[in-house]
Amino acid sequence: MGVIKQQTIKGTIYSYAGILIGFITIVLLQPHALTTEQVGLTQLLISFSGLFGQFASLGFPGTARYFPYFRNQEKGHHGYLFLFCIVALAGTLLMIILAWAFKDQIISSKSGESSLFGQYYWYLLPLIVFTTFFNVFERYAMMLYNTSSGRILREFTKRIFILVPVLLFYFQLISFELFMILWLVANVLPTLLMLRRLIADGHFFFKPDFKFLDGGMRSKLINISAWGLFVGSSPLIIESIDKYIIHKQFGLDATGIYSIAFQFAIIVSLPSRSLYSIAFAVVAEAWKENDLKTIRDVYAKSCIVQIITTLLLVILVWANINNIFQILPANYESGKYVILFICLAHLVDASTGINTAILASSKFYKYDGIFTLSLAGLTILTNIWLIPIFGITGSAIAMFITIAAINIFRYLFLLFAFKLQPFTIKSPIALLVGILIYFLSLWLIPKFDNFVVDIVVRSGFITAFYGGCVYSLKLSDDITHTIDGYLQKMKALF
User: Fold this and answer.
1) What is the C-alpha to C-alpha distance for residues 14 and 156, in angstroms, rounded to an integer?
2) What SS3 class is residue 177?
3) How far apart are CA 304 and CA 461, in angstroms?
4) In sequence order, which residues have a C-beta less than 8 Å from that of residue 371 and are 6 or more positions away?
5) H/E element, 140
6) Most CB contacts within 10 A, which of 184, 242, 321, 484?
7) Cβ-Cβ contacts under 8 Å for 363 (sequence gap 6 or more)
8) For residue 300, how many C-alpha atoms fall within 13 Å in the half-sphere facing its CB?
9) Which pTM was predicted?
């Protein structure tokens, strides 16, 4: 867990610094500077560029499970990056053609609100290009155990770039047209910086090594890419289809409200995302050596760490839910239960540890693909079913159902196929401690008239008591050792 711990901590620090910037940009400024329709436009462009960008890779990210066989610094990793870029370039051209051909179908909405989306639709094309190649460079860096650079650029640096046009527009120094141009630039710059990082680190090897691609390896890469073309895109379909269906049903206004609510809930997923990035590379190496002991150890430790950290964030968000909607304009309050169900979805996902990384990097990776494809279909069906009934909250309920189902399938498969399961008696204890402290915060902390004071006092109470219980009960060795390290440093100062 040494490399995992170091990279996770570094990634998490910048992720939460990025959250602060994102909170200022998306929550404090955008809802007050932009209309809900304008917010919906920017979020829909990001969703579509992410979806097209994922398909543009043509499933090649799935070949990461074979990267340990390519790994050779002296030989430029046998041209792995060259192959990745060529495949991505072909896929990008295909996606641009499809985006152009299906423009009318994509921008149409039952609400009739398609003029703003149609006006700025062509911004989608450069976003597809740069999103695709950012994914390429970040994935390549991950395989070289550098998970922090991509996360820093995506979750911290990009948000600082976006903050600039938002501030300029908030203070009415630029028009919306100029805002969109600067917003586009802010979204494409991280790709160039990621490329610069690879070059500076001496990892940008753009030379093919076709001799290394013997018949067996070539066949493996083609097969897993063909499989991954759809399977690898399924998680993003699960994450993105909600905004598209909401736009289709209710227009950009509802999409904007849903997107802002989603920003609060997505906070709770950050520890898991940071951990997963490096865990995948470590688990892939362990499978290569058939080292089940390492996999079992990482699985169990990641599970309890994610339960503890994610549960704390869920409690903090929901305990302050009324304060949250004092920050936002009144028309955003319809997103309240969107926050609840998406938070619960991420808690379920985190509570099952790194099951995705373990299964996806194993010899049974195709079963994970079957699960994911099935759940992508379930996501579409549940969104189509629940959104007309419950509005934007229906989409959040659909996400909860989908994520819970896929994690149950993965958990059971790993249990029966490899006798792997991450839970101990400490897992339910952590959940009970969190629930108890949440209700104690409701009973013991009075409601303050000033919502800022209420947030500080309530959050401080929850964090202090929860952290104290986790430490005193020694629910996680990694967390206990980390706290002990900080305590030793504090003692040294005195």
Assistant:
1) 6
2) helix
3) 22
4) 406, 409, 410, 413
5) helix 124-143
6) 242
7) 287
8) 15
9) 0.83
Domain locations along the chain: 1-230, 233-488
Q: According to the model, what pLDDT value does residue 436 have?
A: 96
Provide long-range contacts, Cβ within 8 A and 24+ apart, for 206-211: 206/81, 206/82, 206/85, 207/76, 207/79, 207/82, 208/79, 208/82, 208/83, 209/75, 209/76, 209/78, 209/79, 209/82, 210/79
What are the pLDDT digits (tens) for 125-155? 999 999 999 999 998 888 887 777 888 898 8
Q: Which residues contact 18 (CB under 8 A, 6 or more apart)?
A: 152, 155, 156, 159
Distance CA 155, CA 277 (A): 14
Non-local CB neighbours of 202 within 8 Å, separated by 6+ positions: none
Q: State the first-to-last Cα distance of the chain, in angstroms, to the nearest integer.
A: 31
- Cα–Cα distance measured from residue 276 to residue 379, given in angstroms and rounded to the nearest whole number: 22
Instruction: Read off the pLDDT band of 335 (50, 70, 90).
Output: very high
Residue 277 makes CB contacts below 8 A (sequence gap 6+) with: 7, 11, 142, 147, 150, 151
Q: How far apart are CA 203 and CA 146, in angstroms?
A: 11
| Residue tagged 């996806």 (tokens) | 360
Count the Cβ atoms, other than its own, within 10 Å of residue 404: 17
